[in-house]
Hints:
Elements: E1 9-14, E2 20-28, E3 43-50, E4 53-57, E5 60-64, E6 68-72, E7 78-80, E8 89-96, E9 101-104, H1 105-113, H2 115-122, E10 127-131, E11 133-135, H3 139-154, H4 161-188, H5 190-204, H6 212-218, H7 223-234, H8 238-256, H9 261-267, H10 273-284, H11 288-295
Antiparallel strand pairs: 1-9, 1-10, 2-8, 3-6, 3-8, 4-5, 4-7, 6-11
The chain binds a DNA duplex through residues 211-213, 221-225, 227-228, 231, 237-239, 243, 260-262, 270-275, 277-279, 281, 287-289.
Amino acid sequence: MKRGENQMKFLKIPIDKPLTHVSSGHFVSPINWSHSKRNIDSFVLIVGLQGTAYIQQDKEKYEVKPGNVLILLPYTTHFGYEISKESVSYYWCHFYCKNSSIVDESTFTKELFVPKIEASIHNDCNYVMVPIYSSYTNTDRINILFNQLLHVAYSDYYTSYGASYLLTLIMMELTQQTISDHIQKLKDDETNGKFIKMLEWIRINIENNISVCDIAREFNYNPDYLSRMFKQKIGISLIKYINSLKITKAKKMLLCSDNSIKEIAYKLGFTDEKYFMKLFKKMENITPTQYRNAFFYTHMNNH
DNA sequence: TCGCCATAGGCGATTCGTTG
DNA sequence: CAACGAATCGCCTATGGCGA
């Protein structure tokens, strides 16, 4: 990203509980319309369907066209900065949520690659990350979900949570599409493409006890340079990344096989099972055996 | 942007002891 | 015997500084 260019901002919301749906609808404007000026206490999700709405939030100007999704933040002034000559239509939804935060693009990218590590540190860290403003190519699913939301919100549904869960699902869909687009964009870029190939290579060769030097040699990086670049891009060191991959794999093997701890350690490229146990305890706070005993029965029939 | 050097701290191997 | 922890120690990695 170039300096000075507007950094993409993302709204990050934990979804261990659903967002709170307040109201929603399908807005169709008259001709020569612009959004009234207001400052409210809830979030607003806007999904463009037809025409162009010109909405300004604080100092930022947005054009909401079909395929665009804009999130208006609570307690920020927003208004139409230009009159739409043709008719405009969009879906809208007012909602509340707890513990939301605004993150920038580099944070988004980092969390893309290390969700497992994040989750293990914070125990339960499931969230959606939706750009404040973005365009989507696959609008069908979003529109279908929004239709369902409106249906549930306006019918005599047996619980108002229905709309909240559907709204949460819409946010998950937006997150999913954003992630897919983002990964594709990274792959298209040459240096990032090489980097993603490297991550794949690490994933495939994780059982071969690979070192930083091995990776550097394979991809023609200077080991020192690779160390820095990796930390800068991903946010954790290369060795920590490799170890977290191994432990993630170990957890699966503990639950889905009856290999001994020693066998699992060897399969993961550890030459010493003692060290494997040490590392596992450090990252998961329990020993491999405790992990297996605690979760074995609940996963027995997972195929 | 990339590579080299120095170095502190962490990694990984080894040994030994304990428990069930 | 399998699983795990503690202590120890050499080596590797991360990182700041410097320079091409």
